[in-house]
Amino acid sequence: MSKVKVFIDGSAGTTGLQVRQRLESRSDVEVMEIPQTQRKDAAVRKEYLNAADAVILCLPDDASREAASFIEPSNNRTVLIDASTAFRVDDSWTYGFPELSSDQREKLQKSKRISNPGCYPTGFISITRPLVDAGILPVGTPITVNAISGYSGGGKGLIEIYESGGAEPWGGYGYGLSHKHIAEMCKYSNIDCAPIFQPQVGSFAQGMVVSVPLHYSWLKKETTGADLHNTLSKHYQGSSFVKVMPLGENGAKDANLLERDAFLRPDTLADTNIMQLFVFHNDSAGQAVICARLDNLGKGASGAAVQNMNIALGLDETVGL
């Protein structure tokens, strides 16, 4: 069996390096690499982009748009997967969250243009989309999403600051309430209402927890925590990578999922493509908090890119992950 040829454009960045780590030991993949002396040659880069079976763009938005324009109009073979925000709400690109809906994986199998989800939106959409589709969370509900990520999500610049010892232990940001992930969250959750998004960075390298608090008064009448849990469990039944954890705080404690029976640790899934969903509820108070735990560089970036590549090329979805 011949190897599939994969070109990582932007392989020196945080996401690109992680993609390469997931691919370089595979016997079914040949990672194409431009010689060091030719890396700034646009003609050579264009040649590699068009010669690959799959290209994973790990670039800033504008550079990704430029790279996408280098694909020849006659090239209907190369699968292009973009890890930036450049094409995430572009209807001509397929959104790369295979677990989004019952037909999303089939769309990815047929697609040559795939927009890789953002890390925060992956958590948010995984929680909200099944609830909206089930009629439990009404369209237009004005919800908030609170999330903390490891500092690797900020790229090499932020990594250097944290690892030099010069960073604050915790930092909230996005106080202009116009974070670039909001449009993606709104579009693919089907909630049709921009959430108030409160992102934060902590003093750990990889991992994240995305939390969505819900009042039962917002939801379908007589909804309980068990209903929320059952809806998510049904949606992700059989998923290789998205797992719904036991219901409630007591369920999480019994399964040893909370540090010291209290703390939901954000870095537990580092270097994996797994995402865990937790439904914490208080039916008497009429409240729930649903949390997604994942690796911001795994299911939130490079792992998702490899998963999407596998699907689009007709390979086993789990290989390398």
Number of DSSP E strands = 13
Count the DSSP helices.
10
SS class: alpha/beta
Identify low-pLDDT runs: none
User: What is the CA–CA distance across the termini?
Assistant: 21 Å
Output the radius of gyration.
20 Å
Strand order of the largest sheet: 8-9-7-10-13-12-11
Report the sheet with the most strands, covering strand number, pairing sense and barrel closure.
Answer: 7 strands, mixed
| Assembly category | single chain
Overall geometric form: globular
Portion of residues in helices?
Answer: 25-40%
Provide mean pLDDT, rounded.
Answer: 96
β-sheet strand percentage: 15-25%
Order of helices and strands: EHEHEHEEHEHEHEHEEHEHEEH
How would you describe what is shown here?
- By secondary structure, the chain is α/β, with parallel strands linked by helices.
- It has helices at residues 14-23, 42-51, 61-69, 104-110, 119-133, 155-163, 182-189, 225-235, 248-254, 298-312, and strands at residues 4-9, 29-32, 54-57, 79-82, 94-95, 113-115, 144-150, 170-172, 196-202, 208-215, 242-244, 275-282, 287-294.
- The strands form 2 sheets. A 7-stranded mixed β-sheet has the order 8-9-7-10-13-12-11.
- α1 (14-23) packs across α10 (298-312) and α5 (119-133) packs parallel to α7.
- The two termini are 21 Å apart.
- The mean pLDDT is 96.
Keywords:
alpha/beta; 10 helices; seven-stranded mixed β-sheet; about 20% strand; about 325 residues
